[in-house]
Amino acid sequence: MAFINISLGYTDCIMLGRGVSEWQSVGLRLNEINVVCAKSILLTIVIVNIMITKKVLLFKVENIQECRRKNNIISLGGLILLYVILIYSFISQSYSFGKYESVTNPIFEYSLIILCFTWYYSKEMKWIDYGIWIYFFGFSINFLRIGDRSSVYMLVVLMAICYFYKLINVRTIGLVILVGIPITNFIAIFRDHLFSSFSDIIIQLVTRGLYVDTVSWAYYGSLAISMLYERVGSHLELIVGFWGRVIGIESQYSSLAIYARTNYSDLYNLGGGIYSSFFYAFGGYISVIIGAVILGIIIRKIMMSHRKYLPFKVLLIVYVFRWYLYDMTTLYRGVLIFVSLVYLVCLTIEQTVRHKIKC
């Protein structure tokens, strides 16, 4: 969240989007909604930070490896699924030099859940760890070649938590934030200007500064979503339609960014949406406060839960780049529902195997 907030705070809120695409700089950024959206983000950050007390921050697992469990069926089955997904990604994803190909299949996003549980149930199984690392490099190479940095970024965060947890502290997090933005920009520049000289790439990198195109475009999507508070007559329909998507019921309001773009020509955007913008669309600042409190409660409950719920803690952090920046559905459907379902399936397999062994 800090990575995202620093980038959008400087580029989109302080600099008012200077240096972004021309269609963005002359659009909603000149509207009052720009200030409203910035205030909503700030309000959310303040409330969540108040709720995440020192007690929550200090509540951590000293040795994450000791929390892992061992189950051959789950770990092997998970690894097989990962490689099936990896092969499918190489077959299904097209690639063009200097062109970003959008990845819309959710199976790649939610494959991180499978990876997390495969790791969690492979304690003292080195060959599974090796298999996970091979998958990591294969996945990263494939998705970097098509320019999908966010998928790789989440995978890197997951691997860092799983295998380098002891090295994670305030200092390393700060370092990651500082180097993460230029690295992200370097990949984007290299993708778009593949045959440019190294010096030209460095100049563009310095010029961008804290600007990250993905973050900035998602912020613009937030402006469009926030405008729906004034444009849509029935906020109840908006709320019911959006939350219906969380449980799998599709409607015209399932994706608010697409709905805004489709129905209002001046709300053109390329998707995304900061967490707070959805709640502002539902009911203004009051709704933003409610959304922030809900988020604070979720973070507190998950991060302070028992060690046996470790996958929830890990995936809440890993998916922050999705649920905070792109679509909060990832939090409520992905982390809370899908992870819960996978967790229950794994528990069932564990209990079944344990029962057969006793018999």
TrEMBL record:
Keyword entries, A-Z: Membrane, Transmembrane, Transmembrane helix
Keyword Flavoprotein: no
UniProt-recorded name of the protein: O-antigen polysaccharide polymerase Wzy
Membrane-spanning ranges: 33-52, 73-91, 127-144, 173-190, 278-298, 310-325, 331-349
Species of origin: Mordavella massiliensis
Top-level taxon: Bacteria
Higher taxonomy: Bacteria, Bacillati, Bacillota, Clostridia, Eubacteriales
The keyword Protease appears for this protein: no
